[in-house]
Amino acid sequence: MITAVGVVVPARDEAGHSAACLRSIRRALLALPPHVERAVCFVADRCTDGTTAIANASGAHLVVNEHELTIGEVRDLGCRTVLSLLARHPPANILLLGTDADTTVAPGWARAHLAAADAGCHAVAGTAELSAPFTTARVAHRYQAILDSARRHDGHGNVYGANLGVRADAYLAVGGFRALSTGEDHDLWRRLGEAGHRLRYDSAAQVVTSSRLTGRAPHGLAALLRRLETG
After folding, report:
1. What percentage of the chain exceeds 90 in pLDDT?
2. pLDDT at 210
3. d(CA 78, CA 89)
4. Opening angle at CA 106, ends 210 and 81, nearest 5
5. Which regions form coiled coils (predicted)?
6. CATH number of 196's domain
């Protein structure tokens, strides 16, 4: 049974999105049962705008990183920090939830992840809707085709760092996020599956993420959207 939920939010210069992201997380965590302890760790990664001040004012646990880290290392730093904040709980009772600062989570987001974990899932990949429509129907069709090609018999088949839940004991067992500059979410998911952990693609866990065309990951969602728009 999950007794604690920790949310990790990495951010690099996200002053325009961070406040909305953190408000949505706060709302989602309020929907959890009262016995569940909650913690939010916001990792401000070499920010040069007002991101750090926004996070500090939100009441989230703030970690300020000034070192040259990959996004995988930044996510892992947040996860390790959350585990220290929730140290009185056994790892098997802690659910780690990850999202991104340019993302807002649905009111039922944390509750959906918790239900899956309590049902025996070690990791859950939720869905990510884009915040703005594509410029043309042709591009929208191409993006939908990519989503459809990933679909599996057991769910939507997509893995997003902006909407990922992992039970802490499973996370620790496979070594957590690796020091990767891109694809750290898919890498973690793959290793969890190879280790025999129970995985679920769950459309009940929903977020809305930025449809911007420039992001920090060389081969992340923003890069894919840019290729679709300009290719």
Report:
1. 77
2. 74
3. 17
4. 80
5. none
6. 3.90.550.10
